Amino acid sequence: MTNNILDVLTYMFDYLFEEAGQDSIHEIDDIELKAHLSDIGFDIMRIDKALSWLENIAAIQDGKIKPFKTIYEGSMRIYTEAEKIKLNAKSRGFLLFMENIGQLDANQREMIIDQIMSLGSASISLEDLKWVVMMVLGNSVDNEISAQWLESIVFLDDNRTIQ
C-alpha cells in the first residue's frame, strides 16, 4: 500500500462516510481512528501528518490563520515555479474553472494551494486535487455546499463537464 498523506486522508474520509451511514452511529475519536488506520497498514507518522493537515484546514477555516488577502477583486493568480511543478496545467485550469463558476473564491483557492504544497508528493494528479478541493470546501464556513455536489467533483469523469 502506498503510504502518503493523501492516501491516508482519502481512506479516512471514505471510512468516516461509511461509518456515518451506518444505523448505529457512534462518535469516532482520534485514538480509535488512528488504531483503525494503523491496523490496515498506514504508518503512524503518516497518520499523524494527515491529522495535522486536517487541523490546519480547521485553523484556516476558523480564521486563526489567514492564508491570503484579496486586494483586488478579479485579480489574476500567478503560480510560482514550485506550484507549477506540483499542479500541472490541467489542475490549475480546474481551479480557475471552479473560481469562474463561483464555487471557489480567492481565499479558498489559496487554502487549497497551500494544502497541496504542504503534501510531500512531487506533483499532484487532477484526481488528488479534486479530493483536496472537496476536503477544503467541505470544511468551509463561507458557503453552503451540498455534499452531493462535492462528491460529483471528486468522482467526475474527466471527459464530462460539471453542470
TrEMBL record:
Leader sequence range is none
Q: What is this protein called?
A: Protein Smg homolog
Lineage, highest ranks first: Bacteria, Pseudomonadati, Pseudomonadota, Gammaproteobacteria, Candidatus Pseudothioglobaceae
Q: Which Pfam families match?
A: DUF494
| InterPro entries, per the entry | Smg (IPR007456)
- What is the superkingdom listed in this entry's lineage? Bacteria
Family per similarity comment? Belongs to the Smg family.
